[in-house]
């Protein structure tokens, strides 16, 4: 089965916030993404709420009919918000509060004491859990130990290496994916995936279940329109 496409709406929220009004309307964009074929909606509210805001979580939960994935650092504030709204999936990301964007996975061994009870709280609320990781066997062992349902591979290094040597760039991810599957971990991926690199990545990871894509997809929509762009990304996954 092809990996599902979850559209990250952070960049839509960024445009909305820039004028202080509700345009573009994030909820309408979410509905339209689904109408155009998206199989999930993702937001990653950060503590400064510069793009997706914490109050977007509950609002999206009311309208998303595919799958809602909320990404973020598990501060108590973040946890209270997702536990109240119960999205389909929560992806824990180890970002510092002021970080520009995500740039590394969890140290699942060193942070096991923190991650294990948080994952247990989310699971008890019926929420599927995923944790952001680099493609590293020890981190995958740690991911299994802390009890997460899935991992999300941080694909920034793949995207960076793709132009010069795509075979070398994907190799650690393909290997980690095979290993994760033996551990019974579900596999998601995201960060800097785009129309050029997505098909190759997905072909090399047959166990891939979901990709979340925002920056490139929303940028491509400026040229192709949202409906066409979503179809182009879906074609890359099929
Ligand atoms: C975890 C991850 O890779 C994405 O959520 C990405 O970081 C999007 O966040 P920004 O839109 O803030 O860059
Ligand atoms: N989890 C990755 C994500 O949601 C989007 O990342 P990007 O496509 O904006 O780099």
CATH superfamily: Aldolase class I
Tally of structural domains: 1
Number of helices: 10
- For this structure, what is the CATH class? Alpha Beta
Give the helices and strands as they follow along the chain. Answer: EHHEHEHEHEHEHEHEHH
Q: Tell me the helix content.
A: 40-55%
At CATH's second level, what is the architecture? Alpha-Beta Barrel
Q: What does the main sheet amount to?
A: 8 strands, parallel, barrel
What small-molecule ligands were found? 1-deoxy-D-xylulose-5-phosphate, the ligand NCC(=O)COP(=O)(O)O
* CATH topology tier name: TIM Barrel
Write up what this structure looks like.
- With 238 residues, the chain is of the alpha/beta class.
- It has a single domain, classed as Alpha-Beta Barrel (TIM Barrel).
- 50% of the residues lie in helices and 17% in strands.
- The chain has ten helices and eight strands.
- Strands 1-2-3-4-5-6-7-8 form an eight-stranded parallel beta barrel, surrounded by seven helices.
- Helix 2 crosses helix 3, helix 3 runs parallel beside helix 4 and helix 8 packs parallel to helix 10.
- The model has no long low-confidence stretch (mean pLDDT 98).
- The site of 1-deoxy-D-xylulose-5-phosphate has 13 residues, from loops.
- 1-deoxy-D-xylulose-5-phosphate binds next to loops.
How is this structure best summarized?
It is an enzyme of class 2 (transferase). This protein is α/β, with parallel strands linked by helices. It has helices spanning 10-18, 26-35, 54-63, 76-85, 112-124, 137-146, 156-182, 198-204, 215-224, 226-237; strands spanning 4-8, 40-43, 68-72, 89-92, 128-133, 150-154, 186-190, 208-213.
